[in-house]
Design goal:
With 236 residues, this protein is an alpha+beta fold. It has six helices and six strands. It has helices spanning 16-30, 76-89, 174-178, 182-193, 201-205, 221-230; strands at 44-53, 63-75, 105-117, 130-136, 165-170, 208-220. Strands 2-1-3-6-4-5 form a six-stranded antiparallel β-sheet. Helix 1 (16-30) crosses helix 2 and helix 1 (16-30) crosses helix 6 (221-230). The chain starts with 15 loop residues before the first helix and ends in a 6-residue tail after the last helix. This is Alport syndrome.
């Protein structure tokens, strides 16, 4: 693997070619270049595509530029290309990525694996698991209720209907990068889901948590340019 590539699992579940395919989709959408057909296996995975901007200052961590994905398993060739553009152009936290930004970009592909229903909002491990939380909108709580303990098993949590539900997720690498413990991550996810009120034990105990792991790979613009040239593009 190139110097810029990272594969957390040490295997070939996620590979450089996945990142190159995402870069290719973005590059061709911003220029008149013709896309290069992928040759990697068209397996199905839930996936996220993350764009970061690399700093010109040594030691500075890359800055998030866009990140959107899908928890439904998708064929990789179509899914990576689709979410490369969605995360570049439709992440509402950021302006659309423009052509002059390409030289400073890096792409991270995360293929999600090992989904499990957690026994409680604390039943996961920082540095290993990503979290997907679902909880009823606290503004709809009755005036009083019998609150389950924070370690109660999932079947005893309140029933949730989709139109009254708040959800959020964090990929596994987010918690270590932010230096969060489990409670800090949960409370940040609750805010991300859209709840701005008091985060009580009742709110935390109402959470249904699904944990998962990821296989990821990262490449930068220079690696992508090398790849395009190896594929016969003499104009890039």
């Amino acid at each position: 693997m190139s110097k810029g590539a990272i594969n957390d699992s040490g295997d070939q579940v996620c590979r450089e070619e996945h990142c190159f395919h995402a870069f290719d989709a973005l590059y061709c959408s911003l220029t008149s270049a013709r896309p290069i057909s992928p040759v990697f296996p068209d397996d199905k995975y839930p996936l996220f595509v993350t764009w970061n901007t690399r700093s010109n200052r040594p030691g500075r961590a890359p800055r998030l530029r866009g990140c959107i994905g899908n928890f439904e398993a998708m064929p990789l060739r179509e899914g990576i290309a689709e979410y490369a553009l969605i995360s570049a152009f439709r992440d509402t936290r950021f302006n659309k990525i423009e052509e002059d930004e390409l030289v400073n970009l890096e792409c991270c592909i995360s293929l999600l694996t090992d989904f499990e229903d957690a026994a409680s909002y604390m039943d996961w491990t920082v540095g290993i698991h990503g979290i997907y939380i679902t909880f009823p909108n606290p503004s709809l709580y009755p005036a009083s209720s019998n609150t389950p303990s924070p370690l109660s098993s999932t079947p005893y949590l309140p029933r949730i209907t989709s139109r009254r539900t708040l959800t959020a997720t964090y990929l596994p690498d987010v918690m270590p990068e932010q230096g969060w413990d489990k409670i800090e991550a949960i409370e940040s996810a609750v805010r991300k889901a859209g709840w701005n009120g008091l985060i009580t034990e009742e709110v935390r105990a109402s959470i249904r948590l699904r944990r998962y792991q990821s296989r990821r790979c990262v490449v930068g613009w220079s690696e992508f340019v090398q790849w395009r040239r190896m594929k016969g593009d003499g104009q890039i």
